[in-house]
Amino acid sequence: MSTNESNKEAPAKGQTKDFQAKTSRGEATRQKLLDAAEEIFGEKGYFRASVVDITLKAGVAQGTFYVYFPGKQDIFAELVRELSHNLRREISQAVSGLNSRREVEERGFAAFFAFIKKHRNLYRIMQQVEFVDEDLYKWYYRRMAQGYVQGVEAAMEAGEFRRLDPETVAYALMGIAEFIGMRWVLWEGKDVPAKAFNTVMSMVMEGLHAD
Amino acid sequence: MSTNESNKEAPAKGQTKDFQAKTSRGEATRQKLLDAAEEIFGEKGYFRASVVDITLKAGVAQGTFYVYFPGKQDIFAELVRELSHNLRREISQAVSGLNSRREVEERGFAAFFAFIKKHRNLYRIMQQVEFVDEDLYKWYYRRMAQGYVQGVEAAMEAGEFRRLDPETVAYALMGIAEFIGMRWVLWEGKDVPAKAFNTVMSMVMEGLHAD
DNA sequence: TTGAAACATGAACCATCTGTCATGTTTATC
DNA sequence: GATAAACATGACAGATGGTTCATGTTTCAA
């Protein structure tokens, strides 16, 4: 088949379902591989990371990798889906039950920053999806935006935000979060300082306030 | 020396100055290589692009590449510096002589969107610097932020913006621009629609207005 | 015209990497 | 404890790509 990574075609092959482990032993090995992959991809980036790196870190033989994943792209994609899912879950948990839109934005941003601090590897992983699997990359941001749009629309409905294009608002807020997170969490490994956090909140709430 | 791309160490080697052509013929070849590299890197991404791709597109032999650039990383870095410089120049030209801060932001955002529309390849190039040369990547954003901070501070001084942390404001605005540009220019190849542009401006100006 | 410097060439070297496979080991079930 | 399925192994095939180098060609000043 000769499907090398640098093959000219099909950088994003279809939804190849990864193998499912049939015993708990197999499941454990699969998980070891995923954990190792998360670290390796985060450290070296997708392209500089090799399958050998992953199996070495996981403590299994090279061949074992292919028992659980069809290829390097597939374990990466799985990681991305996992990350995306967990991130959205944590944010939605953080804001569930909140009443004012200000609180929602505050807790939502805080949850995002907390998540990327805990998963700096995965933050870096997200930045590479574009060049590994273009569709997955767009899916991630669209999915994220989609959830945001609903909240923004509801806030407009409720008169907490004034009427603006909700999708644009969603992308703008995502951009703010990503850049502020990059500046502090990714680059410095710190929490976003209060001064910066307050500035963001002030900009956002003033920028969107009703009346 | 065996310095392969996937070498374990020194992903970012020091400021290797590229060779300087000594005749106009040499200069022309060097430029052909740079132009080809811009297209190839933009299309395939840094890691999937090969030096052969570049020389093929430039219409020169493989060896010729190394007459002008010490290696693949170096031509990429040169491209990034060139892009960064041109982008900052276009924006600063677009806003020079403007009086109100609102106009500055409007023209500045518009210039940014126009630039990335004209250089979609380079937009994609910027997204990869992180994994090719970490220092260069931070340098690019810091440099960009730095210029923005000055403008924001001046606007606060002049009472057009209220007092907030200028650096945070700069990163937030950069994040907005990048995400809105991604959504429309990069993904759809279109200009940012008026509705989206107006929403952005409204958010930004309301978010930062003095009172 | 001549000779040296600049430029150009492309085959070949060397390292690396992904994915395969024939073979072994463990586990679970009866 | 026998047997088959699941799991694990690591050497190897097949391919790619960055970089080097010995050699050839062009340019240009003296």
Task: Describe, in plain words, how this protein is organized in 3D.
By secondary structure, chain A is mainly α. The first copy, chain A, folds into 2 domains: 24-70, Homeodomain-like (Arc Repressor Mutant, subunit A, Orthogonal Bundle), CATH 1.10.10; 74-208, Tetracycline Repressor, domain 2 (Orthogonal Bundle), CATH 1.10.357. The first copy, chain A, is 72% helix and 0% strand. The first copy, chain A, contains 10 helices and no strands. Chain A has helices at residues 24-44, 51-58, 62-68, 72-95, 101-118, 120-126, 129-132, 134-157, 166-188, 194-208. The radius of gyration of chain A is 20 Å and the shape is elongated. Chain A starts with 23 loop residues before the first helix and ends with a helix. The model of chain A is unreliable at 1-15 (pLDDT under 50). Chain A binds chain B through residues 6, 11, 45-48, 50, 124, 127-128, 130-131, 138, 141, 164-165, 167-169, 171-172, 174-180, 182-183, 187, 195-196, 198-200, 202-204, 206-209, and chain B through 6, 11, 45-48, 50, 124, 127-128, 130-131, 138, 141, 164-165, 167-169, 171-172, 174-180, 182-183, 187, 195-196, 198-200, 202-204, 206-209. The structure holds a DNA duplex (30 and 30 nucleotides).
The average pLDDT value of chain A, as a whole number, equals 90
Helical content of chain A (DSSP H or I, runs of 4+) = over 70%
Task: Give, in order, the helices and strands of chain A.
Answer: HHHHHHHHHH
Quaternary structure: homodimer
Q: Are there runs of chain A of 5+ residues with pLDDT below 50, and where?
A: 1-15
Largest sheet of chain A: none
- Ends distance of chain A: 63 Å
Tally of DSSP helical segments of chain A: 10
Give the count of structural domains of chain A.
Answer: 2
Looking at CATH, which topology of the largest domain in chain A would you report?
Answer: Tetracycline Repressor, domain 2
Strand composition percent of chain A: under 5%
Let me know the number of strands of chain A.
0
Largest inter-chain interface? A-B, 43 and 43 residues
* CATH-level-4 superfamily name of the largest domain in chain A: Tetracycline Repressor, domain 2
* CATH hierarchy class name of the largest domain in chain A: Mainly Alpha
CATH architecture descriptor name of the largest domain in chain A = Orthogonal Bundle
* Cα gyration radius of chain A (Å): 20 Å
Q: Outline of chain A, from the CA principal axes? A: elongated
Task: Please identify the structural class of chain A as seen in this structure.
Answer: mainly alpha
